[in-house]
């Protein structure tokens, strides 16, 4: 298998549409370069007096050399091998559709830049293909725990890390979280790795930031800039709250750390917005506060559990606020409380507006989702709810987010019987129980972003009428039809799906649960 040049065409096509996530990767032949990043050293000494003085006076430091010399030993290169049978084959197959909207995926990124090795003619993967990828990460403890992006190590058959001094170690995946795109890996056999820690305080707009990573597989590289914005929602996941920076972040920097002037990690490099594939000064980092919470759970349990209300919500627009006589367009409006959820049991109804959680105002629907997601299942919360024009307090106990658990290095994900469709990545409810859905079929109440159904266009609000040739009216009917398909040796199942404008059939592969 011959290597291919990693030099892109002179005039590459536009690869990222507005609000599309660009995972930062680069390829040489069959190499997929992806980087991982992690927390900042909790024992770093103070920086030089001149740099400190410049920081406190609001001026830029004379240079970043002292900072870089302290944090760079904690930043690592992450190299993975991904067998096409490890789940990535389905992703590559999906990319063969020239009309599919996959401009933000690594595979489409590689194709549009003329790189090869992601499939044969028509996008069909070569048999027995092994893809190698190289990226970045950073140690967060002296005993070898390191942070990177989920998309760097997802489906990895093996993981190796290279430290700043060139030493290569074998690593294992401790746990991953797709919803925040974070992963925790571990290198065994040594107790004195250089490491960094996460910042305790959020960065401010205008603060200096230094990004360290491994762009294009070149080895440790440093760029500098400022924090441009906070709280960015780029449509990458349900809990988007990105820090935007203008320090150049290039292909291959995924998972690399961004440091403040005290040597603390303020974010994990994850995505860029770019019309060309290179840095244009708009990069997005997972905030340190989010990373700390996720990493702590991954280290403790190997997977993430989140609090769950069980409601579909939408923002309160100015028109909605006006129609309800509200002074401000704030809060999260409930579209539908899921049957049997904590919200439904507490009496929350469609049309209610959740205005605060434990006394803290809710700005919008995404703010509510982020607030609840950081709470543990079983937590008692007090909500302020606007119900038919009247404010009322509601106290309830949070459940556990369905389909939220992630397996550890073994890769096996436990099924979620409550969701009813562990093999498709869907949560369902009988159509008869959802207002406006009709009497036939089951309604899709949520879709796992990286599940088989999502990859084939099934969306929240769709109604599934038929599974494998059998009409369905309940979650049990769907489960039974999927079980029959699997027992008959089928690798995919045909769904009849009714959307807002039409009814269509969709063949969805049966993922191994």
Automatic annotation (TrEMBL):
Substrate binds at residues 151, 181, 252-254. One of its GO terms (biological process) is proteolysis. It is found in: Periplasm. It catalyses: Acts on substrates that are at least partially unfolded. The cleavage site P1 residue is normally between a pair of hydrophobic residues, such as Val-|-Val. Keywords: Hydrolase, Periplasm, Protease, Repeat, Serine protease, Signal, Stress response. Its main location: periplasm. GO terms for molecular function: serine-type endopeptidase activity. Residues 293-389, 420-475 form the PDZ domain. The active site is at 151 (charge relay system), 181 (charge relay system), 254 (charge relay system). Its EC number is 3.4.21.107. It comes from the Bacteria. Belongs to the peptidase S1C family. PANTHER family: PERIPLASMIC SERINE ENDOPROTEASE DEGP-LIKE-RELATED, SERINE PROTEASE FAMILY S1C HTRA-RELATED. This is Probable periplasmic serine endoprotease DegP-like. It comes from Bradyrhizobium erythrophlei.
